């Protein structure tokens, strides 16, 4: 609202920021543009190809499923036309397109590479509403998808990301959306199905819903006896699944992460990964100081080096949303021995950097975690 003038933008049709088209007969216009792209982009890209391609994305947004199926039936056996359609349709971003891609794959009209490429883009572009999520959930549970592990993983992870996007738009999103994943995690745990447990944890991590904290905690080492017997990789995945939850409900994750970091009975890699999650939960001065105090008597130098280097790198962070964490890190670093600066690179380390140029309004941020004990870099 500016002054007394209120602007309202329609949401029923997605709009691309281009010169608006006059749409009279969408199916006919789609065919016309498709033929133009095929005819004029053989030897070299035509100068109007980008605009025409964007129009090829915009027009299906006002088309029905029947219209799109009719166009597909007309051109599916022509390789060049087929390629242009499969490049454009996933970017349309409507539930109709997700349904179209699903039906064509199940009918055997799309090859596996075509389906994966189209689905990955479509799940990222589509509006994350209840209709689309139900469609994606049904696709993930379909028996044909279940027989192809790599494809099922793509669909499941896409479903988790879609829940996260939906919850951003609707903060009161229901935890019922995650019930199928919680059930999968519970069943996989009872059967000790490691690949299925790992996949469920990654989906829950993508979703980042606070309701998933309890199922994830059942798989955290140290907090549950059964979880300690799980492979190290699963324990790490369980901790990493807390990262997105920590961004929404840091107070719930902070004590759990701190407990894992301080538990000397756990594998060093597990403790270092918990340290990553702890600082992503933006801990208070008291929590960081408690960690610094505990590290004075820590015997594992990998954990000490990792935590110290992480805290020290946070003291240099200038991002506004990390100001409180940077302040806490500055307090904690004064409680720790400066001798830790001289630890060699054979010990694990963490590094976080950020940069912002005010006049250019350009910035960048990055992090690197080197866990030498496991000979891996996260």
Automatic annotation (TrEMBL):
GO MF terms, alphabetically ordered: lipid transporter activity; nutrient reservoir activity
Xref: SUPFAM superfamilies: Lipovitellin-phosvitin complex, beta-sheet shell regions (SSF56968), Lipovitellin-phosvitin complex, superhelical domain (SSF48431)
InterPro entries: Lipid_transp_b-sht_shell (IPR015819), Lipovitellin_superhlx_dom (IPR011030), Vitellinogen_open_b-sht_sub1 (IPR015817), Vitellogenin/Apolipophorin (IPR050733), Vitellogenin_N (IPR001747)
Record's keyword annotation contains Glycoprotein: yes
GO-annotated biological processes: cellular response to estrogen stimulus; response to estradiol
Matching SMART domains: LPD_N
Positions of the Vitellogenin domain: 1-378
Keyword Glycoprotein: yes
PROSITE patterns assigned to the protein according to its UniProt record, in alphabetical order: VITELLOGENIN
Keywords, comma-separated and alphabetical: Glycoprotein, Storage protein
PANTHER family the UniProt entry points to: VITELLOGENIN-RELATED
Protein name: Vitellogenin
Record organism: Carassius auratus (Goldfish)
């Amino acid at each position: 609202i500016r002054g007394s003038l209120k602007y309202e933008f329609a949401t029923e049709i997605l709009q691309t920021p281009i010169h608006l088209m006059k749409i009279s007969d969408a199916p006919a216009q789609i065919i016309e543009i498709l033929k133009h792209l095929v005819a004029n982009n053989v030897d070299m890209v035509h100068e109007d190809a980008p605009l025409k391609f964007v129009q090829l994305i915009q027009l299906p947004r006002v088309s029905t499923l029947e219209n799109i199926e009719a166009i597909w039936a007309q051109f599916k056996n022509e390789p060049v036309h087929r390629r242009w359609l499969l490049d454009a349709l996933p970017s349309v971003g409507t539930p109709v397109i997700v349904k179209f891609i699903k039906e064509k794959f199940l009918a055997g009209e799309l090859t596996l590479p075509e389906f994966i490429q189209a689905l990955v883009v479509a799940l990222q572009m589509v509006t994350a509403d209840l209709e689309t999520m139900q469609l994606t959930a049904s696709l993930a549970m379909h028996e044909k998808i279940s027989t192809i592990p790599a494809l099922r993983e793509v669909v499941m992870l896409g479903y988790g990301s879609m829940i996260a996007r939906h919850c951003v738009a609707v903060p009161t999103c229901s935890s019922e959306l995650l019930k199928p994943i919680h059930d999968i995690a519970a069943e996989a745990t009872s059967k000790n199905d490691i690949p299925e447990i790992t996949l469920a944890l990654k989906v829950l991590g993508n979703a980042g819903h606070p309701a998933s904290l309890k199922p994830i905690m059942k798989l955290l080492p140290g907090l549950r006896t059964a979880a300690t017997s799980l492979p190290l990789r699963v324990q790490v995945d369980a901790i990493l699944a807390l990262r997105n939850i920590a961004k929404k409900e840091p107070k719930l994750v902070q004590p759990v992460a701190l407990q894992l970091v301080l538990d000397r009975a756990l594998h060093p890699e597990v403790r270092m990964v918990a340290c990553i999650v702890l600082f992503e939960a933006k801990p208070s001065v008291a929590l960081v100081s408690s960690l610094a105090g505990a590290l004075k008597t820590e015997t594992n130098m990998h954990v000490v080096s990792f935590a110290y280097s992480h805290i020290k790198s946070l003291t240099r962070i200038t991002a506004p949303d990390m100001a409180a964490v940077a302040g806490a890190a500055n307090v904690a670093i004064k409680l720790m021995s400066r001798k830790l600066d001289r630890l060699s690179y054979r010990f694990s380390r963490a590094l976080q950097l950020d940069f912002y140029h005010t006049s250019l309004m350009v910035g960048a941020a990055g992090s690197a975690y080197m866990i030498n004990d496991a000979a891996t870099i996260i």
